[in-house]
Write a structure and sequence with these properties.
The chain is α/β, with parallel strands linked by helices. The protein has two domains: 179 residues, Class I glutamine amidotransferase (GATase) domain (Rossmann fold), CATH 3.40.50; 134 residues, Arc Repressor Mutant, subunit A (Orthogonal Bundle). Helix content is 43%, strand content 11%. It has 15 helices and eleven strands. The strands form three sheets. Strands 5-2-1-6-7-11-10 form a seven-stranded mixed β-sheet, sandwiched between helices. Strand 3 and strand 4 form a beta hairpin. Helix 1 runs antiparallel to helix 7, helix 12 packs across helix 14 and helix 13 packs across helix 14. The protein starts with 17 loop residues before the first helix and ends in a 15-residue tail after the last helix.
Length: 380
């Protein structure tokens, strides 16, 4: 996959337009003139195409989060042309789908084989309305599956895929609110609740809510590159101001500070994104630096590379969770951005010289913390 070369541009000093300058930097030094905004992009310029199926009483947040992430990645600035990404609501021409809030969304494009899309995303709705759809919708999903197009289940969209027999024993990411519904409807189907999304072969499932932004950002990173993903993170999910959750994390990490402004900003970004770590190249762009420059600063100021510092911060946060909460080792691993408990345990032992379970037991026996109600080996 080829990506356009990024040409360095002059960065304005911090001020009220700093956010716009960062977006322009992530977009590269290409022109943002008004005349260019009227041109129609060629089809071969589109790197990520997503067709969207809406089920009755779907959540607007899932649709808005997906479309807004794609539009930020698709074009320069805030023009929102479908240049590098495209998206369309599919269905029966002339019809509208009612969201759970009562807002109606019109169908933009008729159902076809689905082969023009890289993914077909199903945004499910309220479960009592799951069967209130035309048979054409399910037939379309089956044709897309037969054509090898990956299917995405968003919120209860995963229920739709499972009901249609399209999950094929794939692991499903289910929102905790719907766990009992999933167990009742698909008692033998595997599921996870401790993540934002799951990739399992030709199926992707997402819990819904704000998790859709995380999934969309990952798809954009894979298809369009880290610069597009960084722009989405900046526009939709990263704030320069502290939040209560960030304050809690800074308390857990010891209020790390730095005189170097780029280093300080990079550390804040790391602290805000422990559960789903950002790529170092993305962090570098967000602080108006390069990966090489950022590594030099980290090595000079902290004695560790950005990746090492980031991992150690996640482990430190994990140690704090281990000693102050009753969370399982598995849940702590996911909360700290590790793919599974085994990776977390191995890195934790390398860093602290003791397995997390042994540390917890030792502290429990000395009365340092409240005894855990959960087992270390739990994978719930």
């Amino acid at each position: 996959m080829r990506h356009p070369k990024q040409t360095p541009t002059r960065v304005a000093p911090p001020g009220k337009d700093a956010g716009k300058h960062l977006v322009h930097r992530l977009d590269g030094s290409q022109s943002l003139d008004t005349a260019a905004a009227t041109s129609v992009p060629p089809d071969d310029a589109v790197e990520l195409r997503i067709g969207i199926l809406l089920w009755p009483r779907f959540p607007l947040l899932s649709l808005a989060g997906l479309c807004d992430a794609l539009r930020h990645a698709a074009d320069l600035g805030d023009q929102s042309r479908q240049v590098r990404c495209s998206w369309s609501v599919l269905g029966l021409p002339g019809t509208r789908i009612t969201a759970s809030s009562g807002v109606e969304i019109p169908v933009q494009e008729a159902l076809d084989s689905g082969t023009k899309f890289d993914y077909i995303a199903v945004i499910g709705g309220l479960l009592p309305f799951m069967d209130d759809v035309e048979p054409h919708y399910l037939a379309f999903l089956r044709r897309a599956d037969e054509a090898g197009v990956p299917l995405i289940g968003i919120c209860t969209g995963t229920f739709v895929l499972a009901r249609a027999g399209l999950m094929k024993d794939q692991l499903a990411c289910i929102h905790p609110f719907h766990v009992d519904d999933w167990k009742r409807m698909f008692p033998k189907a595997r599921f996870a609740t401790n993540c934002d999304y799951v990739f399992d072969g030709p199926r992707i499932s997402c819990a819904g809510g704000v998790s859709i932004i995380e999934l969309a950002t990952e798809l954009i990173r894979v298809h369009c590159g880290p610069d597009r993903a960084a722009k989405v993170v900046h526009q939709m999910s990263v704030s320069q101001r502290s939040s209560s959750s960030h304050i809690a994390r800074r308390h857990a990490l010891g209020y790390a500070s730095a005189d170097n402004e780029k280093l300080r900003q990079a550390i804040i970004l790391m602290e805000k994104n422990l559960s789903i770590p950002l790529e170092i190249s993305v962090i570098a762009k967000l602080v108006n630096s390069s990966s090489r420059q950022l590594e030099r600063v980290f090595l000079a100021e902290t004695g560790a590379s950005p990746s090492e510092f980031y991992r150690n911060s996640r482990l430190k946060y994990g140690r704090w969770l281990l000693t102050t909460t009753d969370s399982t080792i598995n849940d702590i691993a996911f909360e700290c951005g590790f793919s599974d408990a085994a990776h977390f345990i191995r890195h934790f032992q390398q860093c602290y010289g003791v397995a997390p379970g042994r540390l917890r037991k030792a502290l429990t026996s000395t009365g340092t913390r409240v005894p855990s109600r959960s087992s270390e080996t739990s994978t719930s």
